[in-house]
Amino acid sequence: MRMPFLCGLLMWSAISFSVAQEKPQATTNNAGQDSQVVSILKEMATLRGQINSAQSSQVKAGAWLNLNRKADALATRMTELLPKVPDSGPPTPTPELNQIADQSKALGISVNYCEIGTDWAADSTGYKNYLNLWPDGPNADEAFWKSKVEAHGCGDFEGTVEEYQHGVEMYSDFIKRYPSSSYVTQAKSQLSAYEAGLREEQKREAKPAPGNSPN
Asked: Residues 120-134: what's their mean pLDDT?
């Protein structure tokens, strides 16, 4: 039977202490013992309990929002703890990091590794739940931004006309919905960049291909 993550911390500490004295940090970074990781997971467990016991949709929405915030912080820390060995290619998540991801998923928010970006990212389940439970809540702009505008994804941006058009529509929609949001400045900056990219891509596609120029 696999020992539960938090209950096994002391045993892991005893086993890994002597190893850490002999090997380089890059190969012995035991994420399961990291104080930030342990603290965040405990906070997430508390928030999950609040969700389960919430007596109102607003209280539950707030707990979901905070749970997703903590999962974002966890993903950032997990990325920092990826083993970095020079000249060995992209980092590979360790079993300990995968176990932490399992813990986060069990608490309600999945944290996934993206090989393209070589980082961990939490999904937006908590932010989506906030919007469903409290669509006009005081943090609706943040929840909308994190779940619908700048949601984490794993893939390449190819710079097609369709991608630029989608970006223009997405940022324009956010600005209209939440004109007083603290994210508006960033949204306007992104909108300008997408509009410029769209114009350039449309110009590029409008140019005749080499060899097809009229005589």
From this structure: 97
**Contact (Cβ atoms closer than 8 angstroms) between residue 165 and residue 198:** yes
**DSSP-assigned letter for residue 58:** H
CA angle, 42 as apex, 36 and 44 as ends, to 5°?
Answer: 100
Q: What is the DSSP string of 91-129?
A: ----HHHHHHHHHHHHTT--EEEETTTTEEEE-SHHHHH
Work out the angle at residue 127's Cα, subtended by the Cα atoms of residues 125 and 132, and round it to the nearest 5 degrees. Answer: 90
Confidence at residue 75, expressed as pLDDT on a 0 to 100 scale: 97
d(C-alpha 139, C-alpha 65), whole Å: 8
Q: What span, in angstroms and rounded, lies between the C-alpha atoms of 124 and 148?
A: 9
**Three-state DSSP class for residue 136:** coil
What is d(CA 78, CA 61) in angstroms, rounded to the nearest whole number? 26
Beta strands in the chain (DSSP E): 111-114, 119-122
- Write down the pLDDT at residue 213: 57
Q: How confident is the model at residue 25 (pLDDT cuts 50, 70, 90)?
A: very low
With tokens 């986060």, the residue in question is 104
pLDDT in tens, 54-90: 999 999 999 999 999 999 999 999 999 999 877 767 8
